[in-house]
Amino acid sequence: MPHLGGQRPGYLYIELLAYQSGTRGDNPMSKAVKFLKDDALVKVSAYYAGLEPAQPTAISVARPGPAKPDPAGAGKAATAGCAGCHGETGITKTPGMPSLVGLDPKYLVSALNAYKSGGRKHDMMKTLVSALSDADINNMALFYATQKPARAQTPSPGKPAAGKAAATACAGCHGDAGVSTNPSTPSLAGQDAEYFAAAMRAYKDGSRSDATMKAPAASVDDNAVKDLAAYYASQQPRRPAVRKPLTTAELAARCDRCHGVNGNSTDPRSPALAAQRADYLEPAMRAYQKGVRKSKAMTAMLDGLADAEIERLAAHYAGQRARSVVFIILPPK
């Protein structure tokens, strides 16, 4: 149940009218205010607005289960151990080590899980990913997908022009110029040439299993593979179509435009969020997101936010110090 003490009077009055009219559904609140006159609604709103607001407590901020971290920061932290081979932002400088930038998260998650399960054979990778949770892997894949893409900083000894001609047969799956449009199929643009060639040999001899790659790999000789590797290494990788997750501060900055700094609204029509219960704010935001509670502005602001982002926002505002506001009606000039 939400705190009402110190809430903005205009907002309270508007919501009481919504309950009374049935806009907020048929529930105990709508029944409680159904027969109240407008003057009573005004007085109820003024009464609660005049009370001292609640302040953050461990109970109001807490939610069941561990708090979900900011995926942007969590992904960066989880990839710290990968930088030595794959580069700080997934752009390799080590021949034979793949770049991870420019890969769709769906593909990279699948690849990392294959190493973890032993479906892809690589003792060092299996050891490194064995301790990662699903959340770690998802955050890592998202981190690499949102980095600025660039070509691998490694040599590519083949002939790019010859490789371009040979790559025509690959475009159906891996995209023109090696930029895939299928989240499950890796982009090859900007990839390390030595890694590409090793992967093709592995598909050819069966040490790396993929039914769709065995026949194409078997149809090209070593020189053609070297040329293909040089061609793809020379292409500019692109960032996949993935929304970069916002930090809690960035999310809150958008909300503060209407709800005031740190959720202390100065508009009597906009609710204060500071020190409001997290277990109220979360379902309220999801109700706006799904259109159960009607507000075009709120639905638009929350569109596309993941559950973890909503949870972080709710916890942020639940932990802010609430401040009282006195509204004074000035006489007309």
Features:
Cytochrome Bc1 Complex, Chain D, domain 2, single chain, mainly alpha, 333 residues, elongated, 2 domains, 0% strand
Question: Describe it for me?
Answer:
The chain has 333 residues and is mostly helical. It folds into two domains: 9-67 and 245-318, Cytochrome Bc1 Complex, Chain D, domain 2 (Orthogonal Bundle); 71-234, Orthogonal Bundle (Cytochrome Bc1 Complex, Chain D, domain 2), CATH 1.10.760.10. It contains 18 helices and no strands. The radius of gyration is 28 Å and the shape is elongated. The chain starts with 8 loop residues before the first helix and ends in a 15-residue tail after the last helix.
Reconstruct the topology from this structure:
Blueprint: H1 9-21, H2 28-33, H3 38-49, H4 58-61, H5 71-78, H6 83-86, H7 105-117, H8 123-129, H9 134-145, H10 160-166, H11 171-174, H12 193-205, H13 211-218, H14 222-234, H15 248-259, H16 278-290, H17 296-302, H18 307-318
Helix pairs in contact: 1-3, 5-9, 7-8, 7-9, 10-14, 12-13, 12-14, 16-17, 16-18
